[in-house]
Structures are given as structure tokens and as C-alpha cells.
Amino acid sequence: MRPLDPDLLGGPSDEVAPRLLGVRWRFGGHLARITEVEAYSQDDPASHSFRGPTARTEVMFGPPGVLYVYLIYGMWHCANIVTGPVGYGAGVLIRSVEVAGIPTSATTGPGRVCRALGIDRRNNGDPVELYPGDVPPSHVEVTTRIGVTKAVERPWRWVIATTPEGETT
DNA sequence: CAACAGATTCTCT
DNA sequence: GAGAATCTGTTGT
């Protein structure tokens, strides 16, 4: 399979995020189709990178195309794909994926994505392996983000549009 | 150094 | 619909 153009990840996270929908993400022997994403950037009060690099968030300030994995509420891992030029401090949170052979209910939600793929903090900084997707811009829906309490109004969550039957397109 | 809120999910009511 | 589980960075004493 031909890899995704790496230059795609070098742009701002709110431009990269919608283009990651439908993209195939190879990790740990699984091939996951990305179905729901959110963007975070350094000028974004809801982002971990908002106050500059720390021991936890420094990978977001490095080169794009690697994972930023953090632990939330003491129990769950969440995976982001770092985007933008070095020092940009931005990423795209992978909220849901589809994996052949795994029920969608087990891969919906950022914590469950990491559990299903076997991602934890040891994978922080790992390069991501992406392959071109199949979702045209006309099949992308945009909404506000989930679970944030700052910059709530930013329309920075993107999902693949679904049919009335709930099928992804 | 203590308190607290948070990019979540599960379990029980 | 509410509570628990329990890590990290920020803020205040």
C-alpha cells in the first residue's frame, strides 16, 4: 500500500484533521479507518500544549507524524497525531476508528481506540503509518468538540457523514 | 506542598 | 443520571 503524503501532516491541525477522516492507520498489526477526529493547537485554551511544552506534551512541539499519547482521568489513554511544523504544538485527537473484526462499539471513543489498538504511553512519540483514505470533503460533518470546557465554541470536531441507517459513507 | 479540574468510560440506580 | 477510578499540570497557601 502506498503511504499517505507526509506533507499533509505539516499543516495546521484544523486543516489536517478533516483530511484524516477515512485514512487508514496501521498500528500494532491492526489497520484502523479513522472515523472521528478533533483538532487542538497551541493557541487553543482547550489544548494541553496551550501553556507551552512540558515533560508530557513536548512531543507535540517536535516534528509532525508522531503520536502524542496521554493518560486522562488516571485511567484511559488518548492518542493524537502531531501536526504542523516543529515548535507548532498541535495535534489531532483520534476519537473513533473502524477495525475489521472488532465491533465498532469497542473502537468508538478516544479511550476505547487506545484500548482496542493496544496504545499506551510507551507509544508516545512513535511515528504513525498512514495510508490514503476514501472520504471526500462532501462527506465530512463538522461539530463542536466533546468534553472540553474551554474554547467550547470552536467547530473543531469532524466525523464521517452517516446515512439515515447509520452507515458510514 | 495541597487542592482541584480535566481532550473518559464503566457500573449501578 | 450520578459516582468511581486515580494521573498531571496549574494554581494558591
Give descriptors for this structure.
single chain; 169 residues; mainly beta; eight-stranded antiparallel sheet; 8 strands; DNA-binding
Tell me what the structure shows:
- There is one protein chain.
- This protein is mainly beta and about 170 residues long.
- It has helices spanning about 15-20, 110-115; strands at about 25, 30-40, 65-70, 75-85, 90-100, 130, 140-145, 155-160.
- Strands 1, 2, 3, 4, 5, 6, 7 and 8 form an eight-stranded antiparallel sheet that branches.
- The mean pLDDT is about 95.
- The chain binds a DNA duplex (13 and 13 nucleotides) through strand 3, strand 4 and helix 2.
- SSE sequence, one letter per element: HEEEEEHEEE
Tell me the span between the first and last alpha carbons.
Answer: 21 Å
Globally, the shape reads: globular
Q: Can you tell me the residue ranges where pLDDT is under 50 for at least 5 consecutive residues?
A: none
Quaternary organisation of the protein chains:
single chain
**Helix vs. strand class:** mainly beta
Please work out how many helical segments DSSP would assign: 2
Task: Name the helicity range.
Answer: under 10%
Q: How many strands, which pairing sense, and closed or not: the largest β-sheet?
A: 8 strands, antiparallel
Overall residue-averaged pLDDT value: 94
What is the number of strand segments?
8
Strand content: 25-35%
Spatial extent as radius of gyration: 15 Å
Topology (SSEs and partners):
Blueprint: H1 13-19, E1 24-27, E2 30-40, E3 67-72, E4 76-83, E5 90-99, H2 110-117, E6 129-131, E7 140-143, E8 157-160
Antiparallel strand pairs: 1-2, 1-6, 2-5, 2-8, 3-4, 4-5, 7-8
The chain binds a DNA duplex (13 and 13 nucleotides) through residues 38, 40, 46-48, 51, 54-57, 70-76, 78, 80, 93, 95, 109-112, 145-149.
